[in-house]
Amino acid sequence: MISTTCLDLGHFTRPAAEWGGPYDRREPVLAYLVRHPGGTVLFDTGMGEGSPETDAHYRPARRPLTVDPAEVGLVVNCHLHFDHIGANQRFPGVPALVQRTELALARAGGHTIDSLLPGVSWQEIDGEHAIAPGVLVVPTPGHTAGHQSLVLDHGDRVTVLAGQAYDFAHEFRAACEPAHKLRDPYRAWFARLAALAAGRPARVLFAHDRDLWEGVLPAPR
Fold first, then answer.
1. What is the DSSP letter of 82?
2. Which residue among 36, 40, 114, 134 is least enclosed by CB atoms within 10 Å?
3. Tens-digit pLDDT profile for the chain (221 aa)?
4. Is cis: bond before 185, omega within 30 of 0?
């Protein structure tokens, strides 16, 4: 049996100029604890104690990650922006799965808060990676080149921990509409998620939206 627990790790405020809207937008920061017969996976770890400049820009309100490090056998980050890797350093020696492309971007500078990268047992992967039966990392590039999601196969249904593959559930919902034109590189991974679900009911959960998407993922188009 595979179970998922949502962890509320606070929120930050995205300035209007950053997202092109008429107002500043408050966004939750959500992580997920996944328990499966072989162990426990932590998907994202919330906001780090970042730089003063980052805090002034985003005005974060942090909630502590209360997961016992001894319980976690693996960390998976959807990508390496500061609001997804903030507590990675609390898990020394625990492998943290990251796409090789994403880690290269982060190490090149200007991608995240650099002080959050050392002291983490990064495990680089290229493409899909099976963690355990029914627990699969799937690349979902777009927000960043190395973005990845976690697909959980429950047998009769599928859960997708989509991170920031889309910012909000309503954006994912729009992408499921027949008339919607998927942008590259979204097209390939959207089709892959549909193929993995194989017509079964799916739930898609996000990093910055408490809403979720539920339904049958449309066939590749």
1. H
2. 114
3. 999 999 999 999 999 998 888 999 999 999 999 999 999 999 999 997 878 989 999 999 999 999 999 999 999 999 999 999 999 999 999 999 999 999 999 999 999 999 999 999 999 999 999 999 999 999 999 999 999 999 999 999 999 999 999 999 999 999 888 877 777 788 889 999 999 999 999 999 999 999 999 999 987 65
4. yes
Task: Answer for the pair 86, 64: CB distance below 8 angstroms, yes or no.
Answer: no
Tally of CA atoms within 13 A in the half-sphere of 126 that contains its CB: 1
CA proximity to 159, closest of 45, 74, 43, 47: 43
Let me know how many helices (H) and strands (E) the chain has, helices first: 6, 13
Q: Are strands 74-76 and 61-62 parallel, antiparallel or unpaired?
A: unpaired
Yes or no: say if 41 and 108 are a contact pair by the CB < 8 Å rule: no
Other beta carbons within 10 angstroms of residue 135's beta carbon come to 21
Helix (H, G, I), strand (E, B) or coil at 9: strand
Coil/strand/helix, residue 158:
strand
